[in-house]
Amino acid sequence: LLALQQEIEGSVVSYPRSIPIAIERAKGAVVEDVDGNQFLDFFAGAGVVNLGHTNEEVLSYVTAQQEKLIHALDFPTENKLSAIQKILAHLPEELRDQYKVSFGGPTGSDAIEAALKLAKIKTGRDTIIAFTGGYHGMTSAALSLTSDTAFRNRLTSLTPNVHFVPYSYCYRCPFKLDEANCKMACVDYLRNILENSHSGIPKPAAIVIEPIQGEGGNIVPREGYLEALVKLAHAHDVLVIFDEIQSGFFRSGEFLAWMHTGAVPDIITISKGIGGVGLPLSALIYRKDVEAWGPAAHIGTFRGNQASLAGTNGAFDFVDRYNLNEHTKKAGERLINGLKALQENSAYIGDVRGRGLMIGVELVKDKKTKEPFPALVKRFRNECMQRGLIFEVGGHYNNVVRLVPPLIITDAIIDNALAIMEVALAESES
Ligand code: PMP
């Protein structure tokens, strides 16, 4: 099946080149291939099936909705109104009244496009600040904010006026400083751009940042960073867009990852997990005072698919019913502690980090020099896959094991995955 698809699609297939399986079915945190092999899914569609594959409770909302109404363009429906109310109800209480919700289309990239449009219309400016290691999608403007040149360099032109600045990546501080006394040089770098007319960069419309960098290697920025960034941006009348497409929808142990911090953004993009069971949907959550759309300023055939919205409603109810945030925090701690124990016995695990169940393990040739070791990550991923565990690889140097399992994983599954990783690591190190 895999060979057949590759023959038909040619070079278009991407993930099966590194995880060569053809999938038949999936349930909870387990994926089964066409040959009946089962894998623990610590990939979860890069943070899509947060509530587990084919989650029956959520699926029941979708099935009931599908019998009633699937497509309604962007007409109001009770289903949609309820999804909007649930999104707002899960924001911090004191902020709920200040935001509104608009559905952006089926994919994360759609939401990014919408957010950029809104920020540019609102400010009348068109410069955007983005971050090294950032990933925001593959449509033209979203790709313009995605830093990896491997994705960009075959296109002769992208959306202009995007400038990349360093992310708060303390394990590999771009300024070679120590987190304890760096005084947030990364924020000062940005300050210089905003304050110095000789920076050559016009005043931006917005700063677009992932509150936890996902494809960039599950990097949690240092404490105080997001707060300082927002404060700086607002002092210069620049909007802040938090891209929560991967870090959001409860992955970090809060609805949105920024809710662990004191930073308050102007626009938030969400997608991936929000369709509940993997149905496509994205949304913008934005401050009412940023509103700048006129009628029909942002339209689209698939804005707010009713089946996906039913998935959203089911997902929020599921999260609340089972107090999933607490579970995610505990499960994340267990996984991180297990990984840190592996780190002690390995010469190659340079860094273990994360928040909730968004965890990155950085493999290096030498813990002191921190030289990235992408070849070892490849071997490790393969050894894990042979033993029934799949995950995605990412990072600024393709040397980070990215663990983003469904949030419903049990202790037994975590321990099982850790046991697989321990053996696979020994095998790939030898
Ligand atoms: N932003 C972030 C942070 C993402 O992780 C992704 C997807 N990996 C996107 C945007 C793009 O979403 P999509 O693939 O649905 O267009």
TrEMBL record:
Give the keywords, sorted.
Aminotransferase, Pyridoxal phosphate, Transferase
Co-factor(s): pyridoxal 5'-phosphate
Q: Would you say which domain of life the source belongs to?
A: Bacteria
What GO molecular function terms would the record report?
Answer: pyridoxal phosphate binding; transaminase activity
Record-linked Pfam families = Aminotran_3
Task: Extract the PANTHER family matched here.
Answer: DIAMINOBUTYRATE--2-OXOGLUTARATE AMINOTRANSFERASE
Q: Give the family per the record.
A: Belongs to the class-III pyridoxal-phosphate-dependent aminotransferase family.
Q: Which NCBIfam families match?
A: dat
Q: What is this protein called?
A: Aspartate aminotransferase family protein
Whose protein is this, by species?
Chitinophaga sancti
